[in-house]
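Dear Dr. V.,

Thank you for agreeing to look over these. As mentioned in my earlier message, I'm a first-year student in the group and I'm still getting used to reading structure tokens, so any feedback on how I've presented them would be very welcome. I ran two proteins. I've put each sequence directly above its structure. The first is here:
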Amino acid sequence: MVKKIEKDYSRFRSIVRGRIRKELKKYISRGELIGKVGKDYVSIPIPQIQLPHFRYGKNDGQGVGQGPGEPGDPLDEGQPGTDPGAGDTPGEHLLEVDVPLAELAKILGEELELPLIKPRGTRQIQADKERYTGIARSGPESLRHFKRTYREALKRSIAMGIYDEKNPVVVPFREDKRYRTWKVREIPQNNAVIIYMMDVSGSMGDEQKEIVRLEAFWIDTWLRSQYRKVDCRYIVHDAVAREVDQHTFYHVKESGGTKISSALQLCREIIERDYPPEEWNIYPFHFSDGDNWGSEDTRRCLELLEQNIFRASNVFCYGQVKSAYGSGQFKKDLDEHFGDDPRIITSEIRDREGIYGSIRDFLGKGR
């Protein structure tokens, strides 16, 4: 019975995985998925999987689209008391399936054909790990080695001639007790930090911010599957930049002008203060509608990227979200100045459907 259940469960998981793979582009562009993110699982609502069947019902020739009438005739509101009331037929149901984030990342990588990320250079930190390596005569009772203790007590009993085969009771003395010992060794551990920057000026509306939120979730999902530990830092800016928490980053409503250099300057300060490039894999992501205060600030942005951020980062990613009020000039300036420079990736996100391709742009290089 247990084997049959496991077989059925495995088949069910295979069907679910196939459905997620088939509808991945739709899931990437919808916001309901993000609101159900837990610590390790994501609840994905999918249609019930069932066999095709006929549905029978009444057809009495009445109702909307039935009977005589001319184009433009108003529809009657119906007579009082004629409401049929609650229905008695089953409706469509949704099944919520818990999918581990690691599995979701694997599906994302397979569908977008994302290469595994190779950490840049020797960007590894040393993490301490305790490993039991020997036996000692003293230590805490929680680390007592029962097999070794029994063996010592048995040897002592036999040597003293007090061991009775008919009543083989062995009571350990203090000197019989043995304890596990350990030593701390350093192991290499790859870590990464994602620094999200978002323009929250007046030209960035709610839809643009939602697109950023959706894309950031999938970027997080993939990078967390590639690194042992991932830190996330969040910066919002209009004419002035400030660091905020995750909730504020996705829900802040501000207005005003735009100085992109303020966000890049704060990004540089965070990296210099908290994330030495020789110890961290660093991924700055900036999202904006492409408007900037002026050519002078754009020149300042190019200097910060060239002299500071590029040198510290694995790759700098700029996502330009299309807005009715944004000029989109900043991406043009970046592309014109840096061309095919591998240190920077730019992507245009016209709408929610564009998130799928933008993720491939950013993560498809394996850097």
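The second protein is here, in the same arrangement:
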Amino acid sequence: MDRNSSQRLGVDSIFSLLIRQGLPASIGILVMSLNILIDTIFVGRWIGSNAIAAINVVLPVSFFIAAIGMAIGIGGGSIISRALGEKKIEKAKNTFGNQITLTFCITLSLSFLGLVFSEFLIPMFGGKGDLYELAKTYYVIVLYGVPVLGFCMMGNNTMRAEGKPEFAMYAMMIPSITNLFLDYILIYHFDMGMYGAAWATTISYIVTAIFIVNFFLSNKSELKISFNDFKLSTSLVGEISALGSVTLARQAMVSVVFLLVNNILYSSGGEATVAIYAIISRMVMFALFPVIGITQGFIPIVAFNYGSKNYKRVYDVVIKAVILSSFFASAVFTLIFYFSEDIVNVFTNDNKILNDTPAAMVWVFAATPIIGVQLIGAAYFQAIGKAIPALLLTLTRQGFFFIPLLFVLSNKMGVIGVWLAFPLGELIATIVTAIFLYRGLKKIII
């Protein structure tokens, strides 16, 4: 049996599968997150702290549109993994063709609308005062490349769904390395400022798309699609949309959180507090890479075995994934707790930011040790095709609990209330997810 065959998802040892699927995802996320961190350092050092805040303003819009591709990739990926587990190869190919058509139709339309309404969207997400012009420069250029990023995120998750995690890792590493190289050339050597930062990001998406297209056209992929596979199927679109809505809701909620937090912080403490949140949000992306990697690697393993009706193995995968993710999450919090001041020193020389960020960062990360339960729990229902519980559990993390806490605590306590809302929201969401996960697993092992 070929080493990378999807059939190995049903026979290899669980820990080795979690490592084989999760490690490339973790490395890819690590490199991507390092790119975001170093990009932030470059921007902060070579352009200024307001530029960091300006990019943070743009991210919710560009990430949400690009998240369409991620949602279609993960939603369709669940179908593909289960179809491969059931040996329904044609269904897997049809799903992939539908993913491509959906991704470009939706992301191109939303990018166009995002450009048309840029004058409204940029201030709404916190791009006000001195941040406006910097944010607009970055926003317009990056939005040109967002449909390509959507395709890359869809293709990345489809690679992982067919049991090719190492290529998914390369697809995450390529834009990061390319972006850093172009940052150095365009910002530092050519002194292009925000234009350089934006074009570096957009070009890196294009390079990655070329790699992904080459992968699916080569013999490395099992998904050799024909022209007819691009024709949308009502049933497939419905299933992709239902499962993808979980990921989309998660990313949409991230965008809403950015919008709310940026505006509340701007009102309470001005540009400096927005910059503090920008640094912390990038550390969240970076520091949680092993947990997110395990979660992404976990989905195709569960989906394949659920499709094969190997429910005992599904149960074992969930338990071991929770243990592994909780271990790494606890290690992450320990490092943040002891080295928060050193971390902030890397980003900026601004004394206001240096003084206030370390404590805020510790509060935001306070519930990290238990986050694995919430992520794995929501991903479990997504993997087995249960869209509604997956969606509801996804929304608990930053929607149902965090947003009300954000308004109440910020109103009572100001900026410190914003930071406290993060761990309290995580704690409540984890408890709710644990209850749902326990009940869900109980059904399949009885």
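From my reading of the second output: The first helix runs from residue 14 to 46. Residues 12-445 form one domain. Does that match how you would interpret it?

Kind regards,
E.
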